[in-house]
């Protein structure tokens, strides 16, 4: 019995097809399939080259013809399978597909290879469509988090909330063009620059700085994702760069406020800070632990007040101070080292620990132990959440504003120190020592950048000692303003008018004239070499 039969296939014939029963030329059962047969074939008269291959477990559609002189047979799909989950290919669909596949084979093209190409292209398109700016941004933040500071990562994580509802946010990266960037960032920029109505998306506190930050983070995420979808990347390349080049960006308004300690209002604010701190350090508050819902002073208030007093005394940044650890406090050498891992510059910083600041830290350690005797936290200024550093100390600033009418921020206190020290007359010798120490610190850090190396520690000590007289004199002045006696008589050495210089003026000259700064530094280094 032949194992191949030619039929004009119909749905009725397909319904009676079984491997174990062969058909005759009229499509009628012709008897059992020979035991030796492993398969048999039904060839369709309707489409030459279309056939059904029957095995004990499947009935499968195939196309067959010669390609480059050799027979080629390719499976298109199942009519039936003993395994569940298959999709049945009907007679109509099989004939339609067979004509396409046979046409490809006539051109010498393998239809399965072509099918895989289309599948890959479709998959690639789905992946491209799935790689929206939102997805790209999440990947960007995760990838950069390993090397970024915690504060930078926290800043980047604000962007998804800002961009909710923005047209650009859900757009595939490969579809983003200059017009799309304009549709999202343009309204935000014009709201800042021209005062037009702001869109529904964007930072709650809208400014030139926040729009610039949004642009920088989104463009960085786009640049990182663009090679994944075959787009060019690089500095100045892409729709974000093209859009930015044509924009009139508002100039940032520099905040110049500081605590004017010479004014009545400034002294009132300072006195209120000291008075509130004294109240917060009352031992009864730590022992009785008032109800958190009450309006009474809470144990954590002393942390906040100590924090702002130290920022005022040191001129340190809020983030650097909040993440200060006890390991960074050297009570023997009377200095504070801010590790490179927390500083904005990425370099270790140092401030001298003057008597009042030292007194604050000693009291802080005692208060921390009394507040949480079972918690050996490493943070000098702990959060109310166990094991974490201080995060949002704003409540004390609001309380001080309520009492004094002055709104002073942590950065205002930093500017206060810079302003007051800039008015100090410093000897040429002291300035030279400070510049030399600063130059050494630019390259002398420990291998990890977190703590000073042995070689660096000497420079750090020298820098602290150069700064100490000025810091001490300022501390004594602040204490006198609030009616407290000086804790140390040691202050900045007085120098004659012929030997003194205006530090603020000189520093301004050195900052604006790079050549002059280099010449001064080289001269000081030569002088030091000849005298050592």
TrEMBL record:
Organism the protein comes from: Tahibacter aquaticus
Key word Transmembrane present: no
Pfam families per record: Arm-DNA-bind_3, Phage_integrase
Superkingdom of source: Bacteria
SUPFAM superfamilies: DNA breaking-rejoining enzymes
GO molecular function: DNA binding
The protein's name in its UniProt record: Uncharacterized protein DUF4102
Keywords from the UniProt entry: DNA integration, DNA recombination
Stated family: Belongs to the 'phage' integrase family.
Residue ranges of domain Tyr recombinase in the record: 281-472
One GO BP: DNA integration
